[in-house]
Amino acid sequence: MAIVASIFGEYAEAQNLQAMIDNSSEVLYGQAFWRNYLDWGLPQTSLTFETVIGRSRIEAAASIVNPDDPAPLRSRSNWESYKGAISTMKEKFSLSQKEYRDLKAIQSLPISDAAKKEALMKILYDDIMRASKSTDIRNDILFAQALSKLEIDINVTNNPDGAVFGTIDLLAGSHQKRNVAKAWGTDVTADIVKDIQDAVADARLRGISFEKILIDESMVSHIFTLDTVNELLGKYRLPYFEPLNLRKGVEKDGVITVINPFKVENAVLVPAGKLGVMHNAIAIEEWEAVPGISYSRYDRALLSKWRDNDPWREYTQVELNAFPGLERIESIYILKTDTVA
After folding, report:
1. Whole-number Cα distances in Å, 24 to 29, 115, 119, 132, 208
2. Which distant-in-sequence residues (6+ apart) come within 8 Å of 203 by Cβ?
3. Distances from the Cα of 62 to the Cαs of 48, 101, 208, 235, 292, in angstroms?
């Protein structure tokens, strides 16, 4: 196997790839849910769970007991899950020999040079955009889980081609996950406003206030009319509902499956403003570039473009070391609308 320059020639040179990304980045940023609530953290040399969750929070959760009680017996494996580095996020897209032959066939057609260039640039552009967007999709999945469950579950369903960590508890307080008096979706006598008032009252005693309640849009149509309930909540000076649709596609062996990383049954009360940072670490090839590869950046992600000769393929790859950190996790409450107190 030998790494050689891209078949796209000068169009795939670093400065041209970067210009392509820069011209589209504003549109791509606007499609990412996580960017509404997290800022980028400072780049690190490596990324660990202690970094993103907080070492003091992990140690506290492992050790806080009543001084008169015996030491709790805890499973070592639960705490070992917080050790070590977080795996890199990678996606790679290829142009096969057949696809290249089809492209060459287009180039031989009796069409204008402008049309030939347009066909070539469309393939290049589509691969670069898919690679760039894939990092925001993965960050959206992680953040939606963190926000709606106060934990992150990296499993074979939502990360079929990557590492499986299992459930990572973000170590929120037990009072932040609240049951309701009556199930919202199945009990017609459920008092939604009262459940919200109780959560707001508990938070107020802790110096916390909420701006809005994030909820899956399927729950809105199933339980209430959005405008009607928000008008009522406004009269009581309570946070308003904001419906979300965060379905995302994950791919394995060329097949895309749509998942919903936001827990449908949970209503999430959040304060105004940003909720934390997206922790990130530098990709190794930013320090040690590989000859023959063209590099560009989509925000903190590193994109690479090159060609291999054995087997022959053209590759577009993106790499990002990132993980969401809820720095204001104490200010987030969850109403488990299907769980009765």
Report:
1. 9, 22, 19, 10, 38
2. 209, 210, 269, 331, 333
3. 17, 59, 25, 43, 48
Q: Could you tell me the CA-to-CA distances from 157 to 81, 144, 258 in Å, in that order?
A: 19, 15, 10
334 vs 267: CA distance, rounded Å:
6
Distance CA 204, CA 238 (A): 12
Angle in degrees, CA 95, 97, 99, rounded to 5? 55
CA distances from 185 to 63, 189, 219, 221 (A): 38, 10, 8, 10
Spans of all domains in the chain? 3-47+85-340
**pLDDT tens digits along 285-326:** 999 999 889 999 999 999 998 888 777 788 888 888 888 889
User: Side chain identity at 138, as an amino acid letter?
Assistant: R
**pLDDT tens track for 138-172:** 899 999 999 999 998 877 666 766 667 778 888 88
Q: Could you give the residue ranges of the DSSP H alpha helices within the chain?
A: 14-30, 49, 55-63, 76-80, 97-107, 113-149, 192-205, 217-223, 226-235, 284-287
Contact partners, residue 243, CB within 8 Å, separation at least 6: 215, 216, 217, 219, 220, 226
Q: Which two tokens stand for residue 101?
A: 């032959």
Please give the backbone phi and psi of residue 38, each rounded to the nearest 5 degrees, phi first: -130, 140
Sign, Cα dihedral of 112, 115, 120, 121: positive
Instruction: Kindly report whether the peptide bond that precedes residue 43 is cis, defined as omega within 30 degrees of 0.
Output: no
Taking the complete model, does pTM exceed 0.70, yes or no? yes
Tokens of 312: 């022959």
How far CA 38 is from CA of 43, 276, 299, in Å, comes to 15, 5, 14
CATH number of 3-47+85-340: 3.90.1690
Residues pairing with 216 in the sheet: 244
